[in-house]
Design brief:
With 310 residues, the protein is an alpha/beta fold. The protein is built from twelve helices and 13 strands. The strands form four sheets. A seven-stranded parallel beta sheet has the order 3-2-1-4-5-6-11, sandwiched between helices. Strands 7-10 form a two-stranded parallel ribbon. Strands 8-13 form a two-stranded parallel sheet.
């Protein structure tokens, strides 16, 4: 199939492109740096997208940002441009759509969650109307080389003493390997919906839940070091540190990240295994995945939730 992949040069997009090509598909890469250049800040009408959909059989959207700014407004990037793209798919007769969303947004009131949910609701309406067969994937923390949030966790794992915000000590996550998510996308695109059924939200999480502090400790142990001592940062200092992060545009730690940590980020582990038809990478083996050489290299940005604007 000819598959349009938006965000193709980002962290998640690179892995998806790799899996799609391995499965024998032709990937039409769309990003700010690809031959097919797109701009999710400006391309907010179906007319922007229709010419790009000629000869396309399916669309995968892997674009997202964690920080809202005038240069990268979440409303345009997470909602306006994707909804315009999906409306164009309807007009072009393209039914197969996969949207990469994020686990933990269902009960969150952050701008990140609200803009992601608005696009999910738009897709679900199109599904209900019978004009699309869209799948919305909500992954937990996606682990892979080039993700800013993951690089932060790996850096923290080198410390013998961890001072973490209390939500990071208590929050449950189910990290999954980036190539496992990408392979699940490739299989989903190839299979299409079951006869007489339409798709919707699919939550994808790794094999086992663990606290974020335990996850960082596991990374340290995978590197052959003793488990760290963990100290919880009081709530007031946690909020202060997050507000300080708000002033550092490249930092994955900010007020929004702190709020997202306070929402559940776990799901049924069987869904990912069933999607892959094999066992996914367990958390105690994730560090080894960073040793694999990327077949494609490009900048990444939203590593904390596993999406990237490109």
């Amino acid at each position: 199939m000819n598959i349009l992949l938006t965000g193709a040069s980002g962290f998640i997009g690179r892995h998806i492109a790799q899996s799609l090509r391995q499965a024998g598909h032709h990937v039409v890469a769309a990003s700010r740096t690809s031959p097919m250049q797109v701009d999710f800040v400006c391309d907010t009408t179906a007319e922007h997208w229709l010419p790009r959909l000629q000869g396309i059989d399916a669309v995968v959207n892997a674009v997202g940002v964690l920080r809202d700014s005038r240069r990268q407004p979440m409303q345009a990037i997470h909602t306006d441009a994707p909804c315009a793209l999906f409306d164009a798919c309807v007009q072009a007769g393209i039914r197969r759509v996969v949207q990469i969303s994020a686990l933990g947004i269902a009960d969150s009131n952050t701008l990140y969650a609200q803009t992601k949910k608005a696009t999910e609701q738009h897709l679900m309406r199109l599904n209900a109307q019978g004009v699309l067969d869209a799948a919305i994937l909500r992954p937990s923390i996606v682990f892979g080389k080039g993700a800013a949030g993951i690089e932060l966790f790996v850096t923290l794992s080198r410390l013998p003493v961890l001072v973490l915000p209390q939500p990071a000590i208590e929050a449950q996550v189910q990290p999954l390997a980036a190539h496992d998510l990408a392979d699940a996308v490739a299989r989903l695109v190839a299979q299409g919906p079951s006869p007489g059924q339409r798709r919707g939200v699919i939550e994808l999480a790794g094999p086992a839940p663990l606290t974020l502090a335990a996850f960082i400790a596991s990374l340290r142990e995978q590197a052959g070091k003793r488990a760290p001592r963990t100290i919880g940062l009081p709530a007031g200092l946690s909020r202060l540190s997050a507000r300080m992060g708000d002033w550092i545009p490249v930092s994955p730690w900010c007020s929004q990240t702190l709020e997202l940590l306070c929402t559940p980020n776990t799901a049924d582990a069987r869904t990912l295994a069933q999607s892959l038809q094999r066992a996914p990478v367990p958390p105690e083996k994730l560090l080894a995945t960073l040793q694999t050489v990327d077949r494609e290299t490009a900048p990444a940005c939203d590593g904390a939730k596993g999406a990237c604007l490109s």
